[in-house]
Amino acid sequence: MRLHVHLSSNWVLDREMREYSPDEEVDFCIVGTGAGGGVLAQRLARYGFSVVALEAGPWHDSETDMVSDEAGSSRLYWNDLRITGGREPLELGANNSGRGVGGSTVHYAAFCPRFHPSDFRVRTLDGVAVDWPISYDDLEPYYVQMEQEYPVSGPAYYPWGKPHGYPYTPLQAGTAGQKLIEGCVKLGIPVVAGGPVAIPAGAFGKRPHCIMRGFCLLGCKVGAKSSILVSHIPDAIEHGAEIRAQCMAYEIPIDGEGRAIGVRYYETDAQGRIHDRQQRAKAVVVAGYAIESPRLLLNSTSSRFPHGLANSSGLVGKFLMAQAAPVVWGRFEELIRQYKAPPACACSEEFYETDPRNDFVRGYSLQTVAPLPIAMAHLIVDEDGRFGEELVVAMQEYNHYAAIGVLGEILPDERNAVTLHPIFRDQYGIPVPYVHFNLFENDQKLLRAGIRRAEEVLQAAGAVETHAVHRYAHLVGTCRMGFSPSDSVVDQWCRSWDVPNLFVCDGSVLPTQGSANPALTISALAARTADWLRQAAPRGELAQRPVAARRGGR
Amino acid sequence: MTIWNRYPDSDILAQRGHWDDATRRVVLDRVYNVPPFRTLNPHERETLEALCDRVIPQDWKPAERRVPIAPWIDQNMSQSAVEGFRFEDMPPNTEAWRQGLAGLDQTAQALFGQQFAVLPPEQQDQVLHTIRGGSPPGEIWRRLPASRWWRYVALRQITGVYYAHPYAWDEIGFGGPAYPRGYFALNFGAPEPWEAREVPPPGRNGARR
Description:
The complex is a heterodimer.
Chain A: E1 2-8, E2 11-16, E3 26-31, H1 37-46, E4 51-54, E5 83-85, H2 122-126, H3 136-149, H4 175-187, E6 192-193, H5 228-231, H6 233-238, E7 242-244, E8 247-251, E9 262-268, E10 274-286, H7 289-298, E11 321-324, E12 327-331, E13 346-348, E14 364-369, H8 373-384, H9 389-396, E15 401-408, E16 417-425, E17 431-436, H10 441-460, E18 465-469, E19 472-476, E20 502-504, H11 519-536
Parallel strand pairs in A: 3-4, 3-10, 4-7, 5-17, 10-20
Antiparallel strand pairs in A: 1-2, 6-13, 8-9, 9-10, 11-19, 12-15, 12-18, 13-14, 14-15, 16-17
Helix pairs in contact in A: 1-11, 3-11, 4-10
Chain B: H1 21-32, H2 42-55, H3 70-78, E1 86-87, H4 93-112, H5 121-133, H6 146-162, H7 166-172
């Protein structure tokens, strides 16, 4: 099929895309095209495998489908119904769920820090949660690759976690970002200007220079911000992968031996008609992020797998994590005009690690955020439900606000989970996900400390008053990787313990989440899995179920 | 605390020639194609309009600069837009609005013996403060969580419509759509050459930059 999609102001992806018939057995059928699925599709295609990637949403043409407007951008989000509950019910949709080629990287802020080495060993170090079956060192080469390929800009020396430098120089911070820097400097808190952000200063290949428009969260019309849509999808197509948009997967069928034989999906055609189809594949990869991936597995039941595919452990959907992401903003006498420049432009990871002086373990990052008017109004009304003159006056101060986003680690808890709703079904007739979420004691203490710290920073920068509202960002967990079939859903290569040719390759495999935005880690894991598949698939390893690792060994 | 016109020279719509086609279409549609009411009945509509007037008072502005809010909320109902999730203790959007608007009347009846829309503004505010507080009188509020309705249905949607409008952007000094032109004045909160300057409050000279 002929593609014609603007990826940036002056770059049209205008070319033939290889197409496969659903009856043709491809090497890999991937569900999802975001940070995990998109990178995996690109790698596997480059390694010579035949690849079809199903994407529930559309192609987003940067010229015609993206707008420089907050209220007009909802088509970028996963807007299908989900029911959310628990003591701290998560808001979904806009903030954390993308729909369309490139997934939620299309509308992320593009903060792309690495996890710290400690993140992989929190059970050993802090006695909480679990260790990962891999270490930081296993992932490090893939972090380096992804930082080149997205690419990620940042300082030449980044002092936190395992210190490292970034390959590209960052953009300058806007006035709002400078307030975080100023406050930290006054308090003696190490801070980096142009913290790891996937927007380089200057043009990159066919991608122009950022125009400092500040609409990163509404899709980058310029094409300067990295998203999987512009960084990996074109290369995947170049190497023969088919990206099949408007295709919603609903079931992974299996054969008599318990092996996946493809993916069943509903394709919506240009007239809005829905067709029930099945793509045959030698191996299947689920990469729909932490709600849709477990939903697809739980909806794939059979007499052999009555509780859902890859779920012999009963852990599919469990240990859902979001990051505590309260927004703390200060009002300044001077003008800020926070809507200018990318919101992601400076950060401090000084409080990321466990500090024995705290009454909690693990920590948080401080990052710049810059709410546009509607987001700002929602923060203000969420804070105290104000209305009338009080609300209008608070909004008239819009240009005097600078905000900090705290990004705090919430520990995995089995009770935070994604299940299938017993009653409601979506427009395709698939059971909708039910998302249950509570904070627990460590989470609450950490959250309070993060808010307090952000308030101090803003005050040091000169804020005359500060405000804080709880928010949550990112969704991970729900198909955790681990050491054995009883403690996890997938092994260290993202392969299901139960179904030898089934993989989960997205944020749902993360056993813990650190205080780092997860996109880069998800992509690094996908690249690592792709390298293993390149060797393992030809050797016939996808025919046998994986063997449990020795705990502590690799 | 008073409202004053801080950016009297701001006219974001006049910048429309600098916007891309797709954005211009979306924003101008919002300004010039206000949809008719399709879902709410006349009484519900009157109640919603009264609510919008109290949440975002606009009587301080000339009539032609006021932003219609209620029609867009009604339109979202008629398109039964799902915004990606629903709290398990809340009904679907249209139902939440219908119940909440009826709840305004129940609380108004309990406090003042009249329907919400006909109350004087001070009493309407008292009704809203009671709902904001979380446990207002009225049978509906026993099944519809008042503070969740207040924040997530009423305030989020009303502000979501209002601050999407170029006239509201003028009021807060927001630069509006910025593609393909972009920004280059990035330091010290400076305005672009085409952006309006903030003026000090009446009776105060130049204390604020």
